[in-house]
């Protein structure tokens, strides 16, 4: 977190708290403070902070969420004051001082992931004891996080953005209340949020901290979150869905390259294997079934043809439609059967699988991609939970995305060149062996250049 110390600057009466910031960063904060909080433009500090924290609001956003987004400036002032009190130095002034501001920014950007998550929770909680978020507040917070992750979403796909916000909120909030129960809305406690994000979307806090960092430090910003950059638009996932998936782990926070799509490459197991084999990095496999389920897997190891399982504990399974769920490697590690790809074996199932074992995979795409593909709700490799509505399904659409950058693509090029060279070499070996064999040579030449009775006999044989 850096060093924490106080010192005096000439011209300032207050003992300054630089906290974890460098001199250059601290100067940026002083400038932000004077521009935002201390400017003499007739607006209140809360109003100016509201402009500082303004987020794009998609046309589809319900008015209840808009109210929460319009309160961020005032909520940040509350957060700064609260942070000072927590650190045993209640602010001497009712106004927002420079120290208040710096401590508030430190709490949002340079604290532990749990402390940053607590700050995020407080920003959206109308209950200033910070005990619960209402259902609307959960929606508002998650909408803000998606837009902080990628501000193009509000303009480019407002409908999908709001849909994804609702799905995330449904995943975070406790199960819906039974009809007729005394309570009217669902609530989310700080502990609930910690538990849910810790398992499902551990990088949610980093969208917030990176966004505040960018607002304050511009070119100096060292960001802990970067949105995924897709080499091509996806035919299955919206950018909002991809952004939500990127909160599950760092591998999707970079350029992701489309290695295979059935829309362009054809729905064929051979074509799929051609496009993924040799790629030297992790991959995201996304499936849409003919029933409309959207789900898939993340393989942390390059794909290879073998009858054995491989991969390690970075692998996970996920579901996007109708709910967002992530199933990570099971804590017991009772079984390390993660990735499976078999193209040749007859004794074992031919296809692509993950989890379970060769008699009952957790997810299996057979070589025909037909209704004999299946998922199961539990296995010894991953946490339990459903991936599809029905156990059996047929593939409607399939994509594979590479998460290994230029290095992984370079390794695939080298693999393909080696494979082509080897095939070429084998052809030459066969040709040389053929030329050295008098019987084969005579037989072929008579067939190719045959005349008279031989030619007529061969023609008869072939028809």
TrEMBL record:
Residues 112-148 form the EF-hand domain. GO terms for molecular function: calcium ion binding. PROSITE patterns: EF_HAND_2, TLDC. Residues 229-404 form the TLDc domain. It comes from the Eukaryota. InterPro entries: EF-hand-dom_pair (IPR011992), EF_hand_dom (IPR002048), TLDc_dom (IPR006571). PANTHER family: NUCLEOLAR PROTEIN 7/ESTROGEN RECEPTOR COACTIVATOR-RELATED, RE10231P. This is TLDc domain-containing protein. It comes from Pythium insidiosum.
